Queue: 4 jobs
Job 1
Amino acid sequence: MIYKAALMDLITLCHAKQVKLVAVSKTKPASAVQEAYDAGQRVFGENKVQELEEKHNSLPRDIEWHLVGHLQTNKVKYIIPFAKLIHSVDSLKLALEIENQAEKHSKVMDVLLQVYIADEATKFGFDEEELWEHLEEGTISGLAHVNIVGLMGIATNTDDLQQIRQEFKKLKLFFDRVKYRFFSAKTDFKELSMGMSGDYHIAIEEGSTMIRVGSSIFGEREYGK
Ligand SMILES: *Cc1c(COP(=O)(O)O)cnc(C)c1O
């Protein structure tokens, strides 16, 4: 069972705003993904490599699979062959492993660099200064098999909508600075992945190009991830 009416509203909204909808199906059965697929959704996100592989193997081939959560270095090799986008490159080590594995598969892997924007110690991502330095040094942007197409961020899990808006605003400003300084000639650096079930309206208002929505489509998850 999925919230089909909510999914249809999201598809319509994203179409109108020219935002990409990533339906985050983690912990949900393949049958739920199939239901969303039958309703027209083609882009799905998972945060566990094994689950991503299993669903990729059992579901229609024209689904675009995104990896949305923290990715362990030792799991990279399993998803390189079929993943369309990795949203969550949060360390140089991970970027180097993606380079290594993508080269083996003669593939250039599209990625987003995750920026730490939340007021929470548990979230992953580069802080702005750290990422700026990496970009100045070309440590990630110089990798031949890693194609940086934008940035991603997760706002604080809070009821304070003003705080969430400020975090998204800050990320959009940083995105614009990064694009201007490092990627002004790179037309495919254009994605800003921000917004989840609780905050995608705000994220879209603040310039998101990609929202990652799970529970609004598939219902609450059993265990809190
Ligand atoms: C689970 C998850 C989402 C979706 O969260 P919802 O609140 O259920 O919409 C989005 N992004 C990431 C990185 C996630 O891990």
Job 2
Amino acid sequence: MAEKVCGIDFEEYLEKAESFHGTAAPGMIAGAYMIDYATSLLPQGDLYDVVCESGHCLPDAVQLLTPCTVGNGWLRIVPTTRYALTIYNKYNGEGVRVFIDHEKIEKYTAARSWFYRDIPKEQQSLEDIIHDLRRAGHDLYGVQRVVVKIQHPHNENERHAESKICSGCREVFKSMGEQLCPACSGAVYYEQMKPDTA
Ligand SMILES: [Zn+2]
């Protein structure tokens, strides 16, 4: 059984995961092994970006174990709902994609029930799941060599954008020629509780 994951003692990682993420959730542990696996297949010393395909746990494992965060733009979430992540060279896009292999997880009963969520969470043993993930190490995952096609779309877009006052909400947004910000164009995620008094 692997004593270390991403160069950290396993027990110590559990503690770090708990304080950073709230709990040492199975996804944090699977995520650590996925990062460990991917980085073991990549040359050391290059600069990497990461894409997570699930917003559950995986991004926190990346943010805890690598210099890549959502805030610095080196971690992006492309939500395909697959439990996978890609670590790739930020200059040429070449990298490794790691995903949970449904055939390999069959022999790890507790990890399997966590992954498929086919048993109510209260009936699952967190201890058994962690034990499975730990003894599996890299064995639960499949890998693909990939080239990430889109480099820094966020930065690329902002470079061509102009700061403009939205004709709807009167807040400043990054415009590619539009008069209305994305929120006023329909992508608003909240309802205002009181009418504007200003
Ligand atoms: Zn607006």
Job 3
Amino acid sequence: MEKVKFGVIGMGNMGSLHAENLLKMKEVELKIVSDPRVDEVMDLTSTLGIPKIAANWGEVVEDPEIDAIVVTAPTVLHYEIISSAINSGKKWIFTEKPVTHDLRSAKKLLELVEKNNIKLQVGFNRRFDHNYKKIHDIIEGGKIGEVHIIRDVTRDPEIHGVDFLKGSGGLFYDIFIHEFDIVRYIISQEVERVYAVGSVKWEPRIKELGDYDTAVVVLEISGGAIAVIEGTMKSVYGYDQRLEAFGSKGSILILNDRETTTVLSDGNGLLLDKPFQDVPPYRPLRHTKHRYEESYFEELYEFVRCIVENKTPLPTAEDGYKANLVAECAKISSKENKPILVGNFEGI
Ligand SMILES: NC(=O)c1ccc[n+]([C@@H]2O[C@H](COP(=O)([O-])OP(=O)(O)OC[C@H]3O[C@@H](n4cnc5c(N)ncnc54)[C@H](O)[C@@H]3O)[C@@H](O)[C@H]2O)c1
């Protein structure tokens, strides 16, 4: 079988992680990567054995030999890169979340994807995480009955630099987007109304961006369930992501995965291992295990399997758009101090 030829655009934290994962797959040939920081990335590409690096992403999307691209450039560039790739005839696109940094561009992209029959997968990796998958399956199997309440906690270990935040779409598009998708995924229903409250507790410069580093979002779900999501860009004890679904027949809870389950007891109290952390900065080769390590591999391998078997990969561009829709409503709600009906913004 001929290998699927890949190009990766943006060789920062996520790009290098996805490149490493692609290199583990026997079905894949990683032919080219692109990043304007050519000199800095060169070390990495030569360590990994990637044959070509281009300063300009146009070289990747216009290369007729490339079958599939992975978009891991800053979010603010996603729309331009993906739409150019589609216009250059690329059919298989994996993009990091969020699909784009706002609602209008997400809608335009969805139309482009549907019109050209593009197979686009959005990097909502939590759907491939063993814990979140199990909650989904438990709920789908009816084991906790009708879901009434979802409580979701997302706490990042550290705030990204302000430059990253400027191109990220903001707290709701960048961080809460995973939660908006995971709520839709585990309950298999749509969000109808959104109420968000935001605050700046960690980094004053975030206020100047008109954004928040701390927020609570309440989602009213189509079947009548309520989801409460609380999130922050920083937590002194590291990455903390938990979720509980409560239903008519019981509840199910996800705790943080840890290195070991040991409990050290001494005269001061009980000591547990810290939760696994977020993706560590690239150090050839990454050797610190991180929370969603397997899910990042699994989501991309699913994409590759879909290419090989010519199937439609999930989550789709529509899932990406729907998460953006909720993010936009959260943004508006937090500014206007009122709940926002999602239906009022659909189609925009
Ligand atoms: N799924 C997840 O859990 C997850 C986690 C973190 C980030 N992300 C997403 O991944 C994307 C990248 O985030 P990151 O953390 O890797 O950021 P990063 O800043 O580490 O990497 C971005 C890279 O893109 C490069 N770049 C900038 N302009 C470019 C251009 N014109 N062409 C090609 N490359 C360009 C930068 O030089 C940098 O190397 C974002 O969309 C972000 O939202 C997803």
Job 4
Amino acid sequence: MEISIREWDRKDLFKIQSKWLDYCRTAARSDMRLKPDFESAMAEWLMVRFRQSSSIGYVAEILDAFAGFIIGRINDWESVPPVIERRRIGIIDAVYVTEQFRRQGIGAQLIHRAIQRMEQANVVAVETIYEAWNDASAATWHRAGFAPWMVHAYRMLE
Ligand SMILES: CC(C)(COP(=O)(O)OP(=O)(O)OC[C@H]1O[C@@H](n2cnc3c(N)ncnc32)[C@H](O)[C@@H]1OP(=O)(O)O)[C@@H](O)C(=O)NCCC(=O)NCCS
């Protein structure tokens, strides 16, 4: 099966939005509820990101059908508090593969392509976040060479 990966286009934003929101619905905790205007908020946010020169985005297609996407950014990062020297890092905000096309290496290819682009921009490290208990995410990032560093922990109070 021929997988092609290309840079994102403005026309891809609606599809990305709908897939990303599907994912948000499954990943949100019980204390997190979508805002009433979540669709327009997402559309505006994606458009801003699409226009920023620091953003990167790729879309995977199989026989012209949308199969997945990856979105990230490259930035000179300042620590909080500002005690660590500024450094250029890449952040991958989201990678998503349409369910019917999973386990065929598309996620790995999208990640590889994004990292290649970040290497060209001289980033020193690439970071991402994923759900700790999602086996597919954990395996995908582990296979791509990523390891957990700081753990984002929580405790529900209700
Ligand atoms: C995570 C996700 C992007 C993986 O996409 P994918 O195209 O199925 O992944 P790949 O086929 O490239 O697999 C990459 C590696 O992870 C492993 N892997 C992927 N899914 C797995 C699963 N469900 N269970 C175990 N291992 C898995 C594969 O074995 C593969 O390693 P290998 O081929 O060297 O053995 C996809 O499951 C997805 O879109 N999930 C919903 C969104 C999400 O959770 N995104 C991550 C956080 S933003």
